[in-house]
Amino acid sequence: MEDNEGLIGILDVQAVEVSRFDASDVQTFSVLAGQVASAVLNARAFEAVQEAERQARLLAEVTQNSSVGIYVYQLMDEADPKSLTLRVANPATFEVSGIPPESILNKRMDEGTPDLATSPVPEVYTQVIRSGKPAYLGEVSYKHLDGPENLYEVFAFPLPNRSVGINVQNITARKAAEREKGILAGVAENSPVGVYVYRLEDMNDPLSLRLLVANPASENATGVA
Known about the structure:
The chain is an alpha+beta fold and 225 residues long. The chain has eight helices and nine strands. It has helices spanning 23-65, 92-97, 101-104, 109-112, 114-117, 121-131, 172-190, 216-222; strands spanning 2-3, 6-7, 69-75, 84-89, 135-143, 149-159, 163-170, 196-200, 209-214. A five-stranded antiparallel β-sheet has the order 4-3-7-6-5. A two-stranded antiparallel ribbon has the order 1-2. A hairpin with a 5-residue loop joins strand 5 and strand 6. The chain is elongated and about 110 Å long.
């Protein structure tokens, strides 16, 4: 029994008598083998569909429950990166971007997020789809309509059906904290007096104070390195 890709099985028919089967029997068994092969292929196809549906449900559940913002864009016109159309935006995207998913879902990028469409981002997403290789975009700045300008860390990965998945994290607050820490460290480093900077990790626990900065002068003042 064969299909277009090769052998899928063997129909073995045996008899006690020598030369028991004639040409008409062989023809009958050939027809039977074809029917069995068709049944095997249909069963495999059904199992493949069931597995694909199971994986799709699992992916949808993971996406919906993820604390990380996940978008899925589909390239509608292979020649036009701006034809990228948003197909999926999980609930976490609202927390990440402040953009209600329903306001941009099933819209082209140049309709839902026009400022993003004029950036290099659509080209990168399209290249991920064409190449089948993921891409780390690093830090991407974006301002939606009249909202504040935020900084995002973006990772793109290929998906079937001319689609690309986007993992997005808002790193605006983290970057601001890092800049503030750098400024404080610079001031403290040049101060002639001992300077310590603590951060309270838990507002309900005074013992959760964590030392962030201790300048050179503090060692001279306390003798503690």
